[in-house]
Amino acid sequence: MSLVIHKVPRLEGSLKVPGDKSISHRALILGAAARGRQTIEGIADSADVRTTMEALRAMGCFVEAMPDGRTIVLSHSMSTEFEIDAGNSGTTARLLAGFAAARARRCRIDGDASLRRRPMARIAEPLARMGARVVLSNGGTLPATIEGGELHGIRYEMPVASAQVKSAVLIAGLFAEGETTVVDRIPTRDHTEIMLAAMGADVTRDGNTVSVRGGTPLEGIHVTVPGDFSSAAFFVVAATLIPGSRVLLPFTGVNPRRAGLLNVLERMGAKFSIDALHTGMAEHAGDLSASYAPLHGATVNEPAEIAAIIDEVPILAVAATQAEGRTEIRGAAELRYKESNRITAMVENLRALGATIEEFEDGFAIEGPTPLRGAKVSSYGDHRIAMAMAIAGLVADGNTEIDDASVVEVSYPKFFADLRTLIR
Ligand code: S3P
């Protein structure tokens, strides 16, 4: 499905974005690792999260959406041989690889064409060191076969900044002999550690280090999932770029390791506010509002800040085209290994709209402001590229046509319908 977007006068209104995708995956997977019942309120209704639900069912768990909107996870009798189709979802593949390494006699994990291109040696290596047998395809990708079993704790210094790798190792560590320690030199999202603590795991955090001692059972809890900051980010930037706009995004997650885009936008001159709320766990959430403000360029190259904006770089690039002066993003080579090569995807797409953008191996530089002109662009099969280009289309003259816009299903099926409700 291709979709045409054009300039709008302004955006105004309030919108509840879908539940946080990262927290939803973890609530399901850790629920499957727990004793008793995990109930989840506000789970993301998205293809990726449904993929995790299906995978857990294939592993023998009971996962059910209740009529009142809660989702229940119970694992009485897990299978020891199963196949996981992780679809487009890196989080499903990598976190469940950690689970399988500890619990499966034999498990096969596969995914779609995009996921089959993404690196998996980063999880195979630590899981093998813990004692699992992990066989990847040539090139270190899916499909993977994992033969799990008796694991032992390791100390793992992560060579790449990846919350998925950290989480896979910690999940395996829950069932391993002794202590498993992950050193997260560059701090990445900490939803796993937060939820493990809430579920009674023997987990300790000390600076950049997270340790879990195996053998302490997790207890099922009630998880309230805040709105996904990564989805809210598209509306924050849209309101910032379109004169006269103001949007309110109630109960949105603003965990500092996720909401780094707000710090960058603040340096660029954006106007937003957060009324803090609580989720009952240590996850930060609040009512987030943003309104129009003229922007100026900024430099983003500090590794911790890159990690805290990793999924928001595409939409930050759109903001940069409208900011006065130069915006430079460096140290973000990981973007080349996401659902698409997000550096090339944004460079090609924004160039097609008339932006002045220079590509680097690890990022890009944008000179602004440039008036954008509508053109045909590609989602590259990537939900975040499709949504970022939709926001670019709102400020461009003429029509912006996005091919395969239905890929937003992956994280935010109602994105275009929700966007429409804000147009004035
Ligand atoms: C995620 C971690 C990040 C992020 C992805 C979700 C998670 O990936 O890009 O969208 O839920 O742990 P990496 O861990 O590969 O950096």
Structure description:
The chain folds into two domains: 3-18 and 226-422, Enolpyruvate transferase domain (UDP-n-acetylglucosamine1-carboxyvinyl-transferase, Chain, Alpha-beta prism); 21-224, Enolpyruvate transferase domain (UDP-n-acetylglucosamine1-carboxyvinyl-transferase, Chain, Alpha-beta prism), CATH 3.65.10.10. Helix content is 32%, strand content 26%. It contains 13 helices and 25 strands. It has helices at residues 21-32, 47-58, 90-103, 121-129, 163-173, 191-198, 229-241, 260-268, 303-308, 313-321, 342-352, 383-395, 415-422, and strands at residues 3-5, 12-14, 34-35, 38-41, 62-65, 71-74, 81-85, 106-110, 133-137, 141-147, 155-157, 179-183, 203-206, 209-213, 218-219, 222-224, 246-253, 271-278, 284-291, 299-300, 325-329, 356-360, 363-368, 376-377, 400-402. The site of shikimate-3-phosphate has 12 residues, from helix 1, helix 3 and helix 5. Shikimate-3-phosphate (S3P) binds next to helix 1, helix 3 and helix 5.
